[in-house]
């Protein structure tokens, strides 16, 4: 169908030293059709040929206009502001140089904005992990397609969507309220921009169309600002951006400001804690910085957070230095959370974090079964099985009556999960939880992956679902123990040979890479070499900075 939304959008593309990818971004903007009046490509004083790539595109496409900055701004805010200032169309879309707009995105957004007369229109976004091409929906449960939000204060959950790139903005609205990004070397500029947008109280239209593909390249030689967490400065920048956004929102709406504080505890804090790593200097600096910031949070903000976030905050407040079980705390911050034994109690018999830090785990009794941070251990049981131990949690799981455990294999590149058969659980002989052996037939999983169209190396996450006698259930990722992580070479009637490498994810969960046949083994080797090369390049880039 031909669009009637002619020449109504200015797409602002920002780029810095991204000559190899920016062309794809600009092309995706041009492919939106006549609805895009202009593509404003802002080169932030690149030194790698990005400027030449953009100039060549401008020579071929009259709609492409290049803005060359004489000095690098150090961030994303200033070049985006340059693009807004140069825009001439009624609406503005933002696009980063390593991402793409899917076909029809601009047209769908403009149609909804015109139909509902909204200055802000939001669509679906996915984080696409590369090179696996795993798509993870962004803020998947936050919006209802077809909805029109009259006032952001009525939907306080909107503070959880801090992206600027999955939305269409009316340029007159941005100008009227002087909404711009922070200038200069300011990380997480989206936080502040989005806060300023919400504080202006726009009506917001929601569409279900996919409007943005956010590419995540964790193995790149130079990762994006949000993924560059090699020093505590990244966390300090995120705190400062959140502090600024929270102040803006609170001045506009106490409800939005409160929601912003809770979001920090439930999302930002947990994300960085689970990635805290093993460097003692980083850990100590992170711990001190976080404690200082949390000291300014109101008790009402902390009490409003979920139980898991509250417990983390209280552990942080309870000790001036990282605790001896910091790794346990980091794994508890993972998703899904796991509270690993030992399980301590206070003198009054209440559940607490540990004997050394008797922080009460308040609210544990009220958590539903599927919200319990249960730990399931996985060991090797022969060459084709997992021996599981499901730990109880202060009697809460025992009350539900665990009956069966079932393995679930999730393709890390996206797609349909493969579910094993449920196996009956039995009480452990030592009285510590429940145990069973479940099949770990990796050749079957590899065949399922091939049927789903996967060629070469496959990567699968492993989860265990537990069904209980009272009808409740939970699902969590097991932690691998003992010799489970050994590489295996399995014979296969279909592939001849299957190379299998169980591994521990960054959050401490079990996953497995499978390389069926000679082609799969070759892709496995290439993958390992690629990751090694990326690490070498990253180290070289750090040394050259």
UniProtKB/TrEMBL annotation:
<dbReference type="InterPro" id="IPR001173">
    <property type="entry name" value="Glyco_trans_2-like"/>
</dbReference>
<feature type="domain" description="Glycosyltransferase 2-like">
    <location>
        <begin position="10"/>
        <end position="173"/>
    </location>
</feature>
<dbReference type="Pfam" id="PF00535">
    <property type="entry name" value="Glycos_transf_2"/>
</dbReference>
<protein>
    <recommendedName>
        <fullName>Glycosyltransferase 2-like domain-containing protein</fullName>
    </recommendedName>
</protein>
<dbReference type="InterPro" id="IPR029044">
    <property type="entry name" value="Nucleotide-diphossugar_trans"/>
</dbReference>
